[in-house]
Amino acid sequence: MSLVQRAIGTLIHRTYTAIRRAGAISTASPAGYRFRHLGEGATIAFPPGAIFGEAWIEIGDHTLIGERVSISCGMNPDLDLGPDSILRIGRACSIGRGSHIVAHQSIDIGDDVFTGPYVYITDQNHVYDDPDVPIGRQWPRNSPVSIGSGSWLGAGAIILPGTTLGRQCVVAGGAVVRGEFPDHSVVAGVPARRVRGYSPKLGWHTPLPVDAAP
């Protein structure tokens, strides 16, 4: 590689690094003021994904939202979604690049929640009640989602409406999760089920199937 090529490469990398720093959204940037709350030290990396409904989004201190992460409230921008926040992400979380968090009614993500890349979390799903109407034209159905503090969601996991994950839960990569899971659950599969649990008496253990429980 010639000196000229090296110089050009160095310039490109330095320029892109400067662009990423300047384009990141934080409390110091004008875009940060649009959020209901954007905590101290919180950052949304550049380039971001689709972001709208900021007035109904709360993000805690020192949370990092990765590149190309979409976070939104409502069907489209400029809707009035009422007086209360809809999407709440706690402090010291890390949301992996390319993930989508789409809120319409209520999504709560606790503190210290980490996700891999390309995780999808939503509180709204399409319905197919009327067999004569295209599914995309039927009014969707909402159900709140809650993800407990200290949890880890593996790459490509999908969290569907109506899901409640307790504290310190693990969701395996690619799992499709719906339902309620207690603290310290390991959840895996399509559809996801609880494959490990923890109790002070048994430690980490494989839970009995529901139909085999005494």
TrEMBL record:
The keyword Transferase applies. GO terms for molecular function: acyltransferase activity. The lineage of its organism: Bacteria, Bacillati, Actinomycetota, Actinomycetes, Streptosporangiales. CDD domains: LbH_MAT_like. This is Acyltransferase. Its EC number is 2.3.1.-. It is an enzyme of class 2 (transferase). The keyword Iron does not apply. Gene3D superfamilies: Hexapeptide repeat proteins. It comes from Nonomuraea purpurea. Pfam families: Hexapep. Belongs to the transferase hexapeptide repeat family. Keywords: Acyltransferase, Transferase.
